[in-house]
Amino acid sequence: MDASESAASRAAAEAKKSALRTSIEEFGTNSYYYAHAKTAECPAHAVKIEGPGLVTGGPPVLIERTVSPPTRPVEVYKEIKSYAWADDDDNVKIYITLADEGDLTQLSSEAFIFTPAEERIEFIVKGGNASYRLKFDRLHEEIVPQASHHRVRSSKVTLTLKKKNTATWRELCRK
């Protein structure tokens, strides 16, 4: 074996060595990878115990296969953050403008979902460009859900909330 063959075999052996092993050999106990210096070895006298419920390594084993029910797509809404409101004796009115959607009267009635409850409301618009939502979980006072409604005009929507009592609302939501 001449010098060039010997040098070539040493270069091939160096190329096979990992960066981790090279670092440990070069820096010893000061190597960043020193914790990985030991290699896992199993003593010859070790007893291997196998059986159901014991993990002994090897490829994964399928325990059971089940069919999941189909998931329904999650609705992503743009929150309506720009609105105005007014206290109007027996009602509270919330005014919403959705200029991005153009003429809202062109949308079907199913595109507007108004869900009033005694102390909260949710209003959803499924527009052509996006779906929008206005939601309040803690209204200032209770409302009458059955008498509350919404009205759609070009790019504006008015939500009318019928008050349970005629007290003046100083704020739309409780803190």
Explained architecture:
With 175 residues, the chain is an alpha+beta fold. Helix content is 13%, strand content 25%. It has helices at residues 3-16, 19-27; strands spanning 78-79, 83-88, 91-97, 112-116, 121-126, 131-136, 149-153, 156-162. The strands form 2 sheets. A 4-stranded mixed beta sheet has the order 1-6-5-4, with no helix packed on it. Strands 2-3-8-7 form a 4-stranded antiparallel beta sheet, with no helix packed on it. Strand 5 and strand 6 form a beta hairpin.
Question: What is the first-to-last residue Cα distance?
Answer: 87 Å
Helix- and strand-based class? alpha+beta
Number of helices: 2
Major sheet description = 4 strands, mixed
Widest sheet, order of strands: 1-6-5-4
Please state the overall shape, judged from the principal axes of the Cα atoms: elongated
> Using DSSP, what is the number of strands?
8
How do the SSEs run, as a string of H and E? HHEEEEEEEE
* Quaternary assembly: single chain
Strand content: 25-35%
Provide the low-confidence segments as ranges: none
Q: Report the helical percentage.
A: 10-25%
Structural Rg: 35 Å
Mean pLDDT: 85
